[in-house]
Design a protein that fits this description.
2 domains; about 10% strand; two-stranded antiparallel sheet; 5-stranded antiparallel beta sheet; 7 strands; DNA binding; alpha+beta; DNA_brk_join_enz
């Protein structure tokens, strides 16, 4: 007897009369699945290269993986997310490369979990039921290079034979991992599985927001020739937001804050929210915003530089949405209020939703709302208006102010901790020469953390005085 099969298996399930050989219900030869499971186990270990399962649970990402798998299963006749993914990949029916990437990441990690959990029991069963000692030793020799000490201990501790359903589950996960190997560094995950006559779907990126902003500014330039002072943001507020009978004032206030501060849509979730105070200085109406940042990486109670934990923006009320929001806030207790869109705390099956999932739902809800209102205000606009268009617009306005606001100020306004990130938002030339710039009413910008600048000066050696040659 070997170190792996000293203990006899208990029957699968609670029925003592159940047959020990749980593999009898599996189609195909046993050695094939054994060899494939070793290869899949290596892939499963590789998938944990950057983030462990514990990391995924802690961040709430694992719950999102479950939602994505369930969504794929619902939309396929087999109700199997792995088959649904492979079918979509074969027919290139993804809505975009980002969609394909998110589903691939989810299913690879789910398959890896199944392999890591079920493979030790299956290997134990194969070794225990080998025909003779020679075959048993052969299985062990093939197994040894693929497992570490922890996995060996798990194999030895298995005392109950896996059920046929467990082995079918393992077989399904093994087949998927072999067909779709993990790509933990995302070096090739965005390239679709395309044939020679197919093209990979184009990824959605910040370019689409910039194109929408460019189209809106071009629209404003054309309109201003016949309507002096025309501004697309004024048009959006007056034609779409204010007359909409389906909007309550709370959501109008959120849209106004989005237009004035360029905050991320997730920052308008009730988990974070935007605090607003109405102030009057020297007879002028002001709004002071306190925005809780969404792009943070929290570890052991400390915030590590993905973005500003909090930022303050103060504006003078000179535009339609700012004047309306000032009146709205003045009606609240103490002339201040908290803006945040609620999200469900539990899923339809009663599972609690992680904060990241609640914020994602607020982002989606606000995106659909802005898209619908954009079609009302600009029915001929080919690009889709999104919440991020206002974020790009504010960045463009601030950067086009001729040096009034520096790179550090723009970064703080956008909630960044580095001046490099703002290069992805808007363009200095996009808003140049246009009336109605929202940056003209910005009075103060500050962030809770100092902004880093990636720009480096000359090397110290280059600053040393040079000795003149004789």
């Amino acid at each position: 007897m070997t170190q792996y099969d000293r203990n006899l298996f208990k029957p699968a399930g609670n029925d003592p009369s159940a047959h020990v050989n749980a593999c009898s219900g599996i189609d195909g030869p046993m050695p094939d699945l054994f060899h494939e499971s070793l290869k899949a186990h290596d892939f499963a270990v590789l998938s944990n290269k950057n983030f462990s399962f514990a990391d995924l649970y802690k961040s709430g990402t694992w719950q999102k993986y479950g939602y994505r798998a369930a969504a794929l299963a619902r939309n396929h006749p087999s109700r199997d997310p792995f088959i649904a993914y492979l079918a979509n990949d074969q027919h290139q029916s993804w809505t975009g490369a980002n969609s394909r990437q998110s589903y691939r990441s989810a299913l690879v990690r789910l398959a890896a979990r199944d392999v890591l959990e079920l493979a030790p029991g299956y290997w134990r069963l194969v070794i225990a039921e080998a025909d003779d000692d020679a075959a048993r030793r052969q299985f062990i020799r093939q197994l040894e290079p693929h497992v570490d000490d922890e996995t060996r201990a798990r194999i030895r501790k298995v005392v109950q034979a896996p059920s046929p359903s467990d082995i079918k589950k393992l077989k399904r996960a093994v087949e998927f991992l072999i067909q779709v190997p993990p790509d933990p560094d995302h070096t090739a995950v965005r390239s679709g599985a395309t044939g020679p006559d197919r093209q990979a779907s184009k990824p959605r990126s910040a370019t689409s927001k910039k194109e929408a902003l460019y189209a809106l500014n071009q629209h404003q330039r054309r309109k201003s020739k016949s309507h002096s002072g025309y501004n697309w943001r004024d048009q959006f507020w007056r034609v779409a937001v204010m007359p909409d009978s389906h909007l309550d004032n709370d959501r109008r206030a959120c849209i106004a804050a989005l237009m004035l501060t360029g905050c991320r849509p997730s920052e308008l979730s009730a988990d974070l929210g935007v605090g607003v105070s109405a102030l009057e200085w020297a007879g002028l109406a002001h709004l002071a915003f306190k925005i809780a940042g969404a792009k943070l990486a929290e570890e052991t109670g400390e915030v590590h530089g993905k973005g500003q934990e909090r930022r303050d923006i103060e504006v003078r009320c000179q535009t339609p949405e700012s004047e309306w929001l000032f009146a709205y806030v003045m009606e609240q207790d103490g002339g201040q209020c908290f803006l945040g869109m609620p999200a469900p705390t539990h899923s339809q099956n009663g599972m609690p939703l992680m904060p990241t999932e609640r914020r994602r739902r607020v982002t989606g809800s606000l995106g659909k709302l802005i898209g619908r209102l954009g079609k009302v205000a600009f029915p001929r606009l080919q690009q889709r208006l999104t919440p991020y268009v206002f974020r790009h617009a504010l960045s463009s306005d601030l950067r086009a102010m001729g040096g009034i606001w520096g790179k550090d100020d723009v970064a703080a306004a956008l909630g960044h901790q580095s001046t490099r990130t703002q290069t992805h938002y808007g363009s200095t030339n996009t808003s140049r020469g246009l009336t109605g710039s929202r940056a003209e009413q910005v009075a103060r910008i500050s962030g809770i953390a100092p902004v880093r600048s990636p720009d480096r000066g000359p090397h110290p050696a280059a600053l040393k005085p040079q000795t003149p040659k004789a």
